[in-house]
Write a structure and sequence with these properties.
Elements (H helix, E strand, L loop, with lengths): L6 H30 L3 H39 L3 H25 L1 H8 L8 H12 L2 H17 L3 H6 L1 H18 L3 H26 L13 H32 L4 H36 L3 H28 L1 H9 L6 H32 L5 H25 L2 H22 L10 H27 L1 H4 L5 H22 L5 H7 L4
Helix pairs in contact: 1-8, 1-11, 2-3, 2-5, 2-6, 2-9, 2-10, 2-11, 3-6, 4-5, 5-9, 6-9, 8-9, 10-15, 10-16, 11-12, 11-14, 12-14, 12-17, 13-14, 14-16, 15-16, 17-19
């Protein structure tokens, strides 16, 4: 069932599909901003949509999959009943999700209150509760889809799971077009699209897995020794996932007390999630099963190579993206979102948050590189303790600063906590020996990437000044932004070769088997 994995080409496969999904997601968010702006319906829907996504990251893509993928990968490698293990895991997860969904329907007002207590004083609260009851069943479908996607990734079929999120955004776009043409309520249309998209996403990955001989029909859960082991490993990771979600809750709570801030932070989040999704998700999806195989085979040198190339790949794409978000946030936000109900004042607030998120972007991606070092060893306890420390930093900064700098306290706290997490993960990984050490190539390349990114940042700053009149001119601003972005990419690409960060030989080696 398994096959050799091309590490870097796997990154590009997942990253390419994620990029397509993010582009479709931009189109979706541009349309939401145009129809709803940063008003109460937009904020209510965003909170409602975040509810199933929060629990999905907690149960499926977070704790459960971080424990499931290494165990499934090792069973594949040893030919020890991987399909039966996956079926048992799916059945147990499904039972938990059904119970959670039923409880969420009953306690939805309290869930919304926990997410955004600032809504209680106005109409946003009732809207969010109603939308939340519609959207929450999405967790059933997308969590099972995430588990099956993890199995597909372990089988080396990265493109299937990476392509599925595109369906969600296509359905959203289609639904908004239909709602506009038919005169339907836009907020309710968006809410109903969420569970429909979950059904479609689950169907797509289930069909793909079935074609590989992996037919995961649920059955009444049974507590096997493997499931007990899975629960023991997943429990600390679940707690760590809970800590991450508390960080997000703190940010949303702070934002909910400022009209429009939930939407501003969401749109800024969407922009910095583009490079984070393309790079970070690609690394997390590909590196974990590959590293698990190498550690099982006691291949310390291969593990070191995999981690170092993942770090090199992530920094080469993330550092210039972070610089761009810091240097030209207003052109990015105004051109992409400022239209219809989304005003210039909304663009200015979103741009400020985006620049702050840009400071934390490298940290968010580096976490994806460092965490597999722990998860591949089935060590989920220490990442929990590190996440707990980062949570304290996040809460202290967000709550402590909100009185003086408003909603931006949430963005500052998120970036600071991200860097704290990276430092803790890096320090803890030093005892892992060879696999966790920087090799000579990474030590040589990183300073050169920093220099190339700095040169690109200077070019973007100058270019934004020269193109300023065109960036605000209707009909010309899209072309002006394209020239600015492509120009920055060209400068960075040339600089990486001039400074020796990348050579033609490096590109050829990168596409060979990891």
């Amino acid at each position: 069932m398994t096959r050799p994995i091309r590490l870097i080409s796997g990154f590009f496969t997942v990253g390419g599909w994620t990029l397509l999904s993010r582009i479709a997601g931009f189109a979706r968010d541009i349309m939401i901003a145009g129809f709803l702006g940063a008003g109460p319906v937009a904020e209510a829907f965003l909170i409602a949509f975040s509810l199933p996504n929060m629990f999905r990251r907690f149960f499926a893509e977070g704790a459960f999959n971080m424990a499931f993928v290494p165990m499934f990968s090792k069973k594949l490698e040893a030919n020890e009943g991987a399909s039966e293990f996956a079926r048992d895991a799916l059945s147990g997860l499904l039972l938990i999700l059904v119970l959670l969904t039923l409880l969420a329907q009953l306690f939805m007002p309290w869930l919304v209150l926990a997410m955004a207590s600032g809504f209680l004083a106005d109409d946003r609260f009732e809207l969010a509760v109603g939308f939340g009851r519609i959207t929450f069943p999405y967790i059933l479908f997308i969590s099972i889809a995430a588990l099956i996607s993890g199995a597909l990734n372990a089988l080396g079929r990265f493109w299937v799971a990476a392509a599925v999120p595109v369906a969600l955004n296509i359905l959203f776009i289609s639904a908004m077009i239909a709602a506009s043409a038919m005169g339907w309520d836009m907020g309710r249309t968006l809410a109903w699209t969420v569970p429909v998209a979950g059904v479609v996403q689950l169907w797509l990955v289930w069909i793909a897995a079935s074609r590989l001989g992996l037919r995961l029909w649920p059955r009444w859960p049974r507590m096997t020794p493997d499931l007990k082991r899975l629960a023991v490993i997943a429990a600390p990771a679940a707690l760590a996932g809970g800590v991450v979600q508390i960080n997000l809750l703190v940010g949303r709570q702070v934002a909910s007390f400022f009209d429009g801030a939930v939407a501003w932070l969401n749109y800024a989040d969407r922009l910095y999630q583009l490079p984070l999704g393309v790079v970070g998700i690609a690394i997390g999806v590909v590196l974990l099963p590959d590293l698990s195989r190498k550690l099982r085979g006691e291949d310390a040198i291969g593990g070191r190579h995999a981690v170092n190339r993942a770090a090199e790949f992530s920094l080469a794409l993330t550092l210039p993206a972070a610089v761009a978000l810091i240097v030209i946030p207003m052109p990015l936000v105004s051109v992409l979102f400022q239209r219809g109900a989304f005003l210039e004042s909304d663009a200015m607030m979103t741009a400020q948050a985006l620049a702050i998120y840009g400071l934390g972007l490298p940290a968010f991606v580096l976490q994806k590189v460092l965490q597999p070092l722990y998860f591949a060893r089935e060590d989920t306890k220490r990442p929990f303790y590190f996440a707990l420390a980062a949570m304290v930093i996040n809460a202290a900064m967000a709550i402590g600063l909100m009185g003086s700098i408003g909603f931006l306290a949430a963005a500052i706290a998120t970036s600071a906590a991200g860097w704290a997490m990276v430092l803790l993960l890096w320090r803890g990984s030093r005892e892992f020996g060879e696999a966790a050490r920087m090799d000579s190539r990474l030590k040589r390349v990183v300073p050169r990437i920093v220099l190339a990114s700095g040169l690109m940042g200077a070019a973007l700053w100058l270019g934004a000044g020269l193109l300023a009149p065109y960036l605000v001119t209707p009909g010309l601003r899209y072309g002006a932004l394209a020239v600015l972005v492509v120009g920055g990419m060209v400068v960075y690409g040339i600089a990486t070769f001039l400074f020796g960060a990348v050579t033609p030989a490096d590109l050829k080696r990168a596409m060979r088997r990891g």
